[in-house]
Amino acid sequence: MLNSRLAKIGALIVIAFTLIAIFAPLLAPYDPNEISLSGELEGPSSAHILGQDKLGRDILSRVIYGSRVSLIVGFTVVGISVIIGTLIGSFSGYKGGVYDMIIMRIIDILLSFPGILLAIAITGVMGPSLKNVIFALCILGWVGYARLVRGQVLSIREREYVLSAKALGAKDMYIVFRHILPNTLSPIIVTATFGIAGTILAESSLSFLGLGPQNVPTWGAMLNEGAKFLLFAPHVSIFPGIAIMLTILGFNFIGDGIRDYFDPKNRRSG
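User: That's the sequence. What structure does it adopt?
Assistant: Structure tokens below.
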């Protein structure tokens, strides 16, 4: 499926960070919260490959454990958003009429709110935690998938095989799940892949503002901590920033590869 070189590189990056997140306790050389004031803001060394932060904590260990938060939030938010958006979008597109009108007006209202600002407001009111970050990002996360699926369903529901199934007396649920939704999977997969990258960036932004999980290392919080020491200890921010960049690039490269694979023009030319 992933024929392009960039897509393969992206897959390797994502697989690497996923394995790092899964085996974090085995890979981290130190406890990520272990304080060593004697090593305050020390640069990379043989004992601490990526250096230490303002409390002497090992940056490599914190970057490794931070991957868990980013990937958990990315996959969870997108997974929930895809499920909710697909169900609502398929119902709206298939039923049409007043149902479609009401659902689309609700979606239009939700889209009028800037996503990251709404997430900031929600986490600010509910308090900074992993669950609240996931909830805040899911509030609007499903909207794009609902619109995407609705558009696909509006087109597919008029095709001959769907009309034939209706004429044979097939139930609506059977038609939707057997004939319509399988044909919407390719754009959903592409959108979801890019969505994970966007969600990881949003989580990092919330953590940077102090609205992310407080009891575990996060890449955004590490960036915020290191911002004060950029002139004389840039390593504190550079390495979590590189981790964010690589992860987002990895998912974007995969998304590009999947999109190109499903593009009929590319398939014909191949």
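The radius of gyration is 22 Å.
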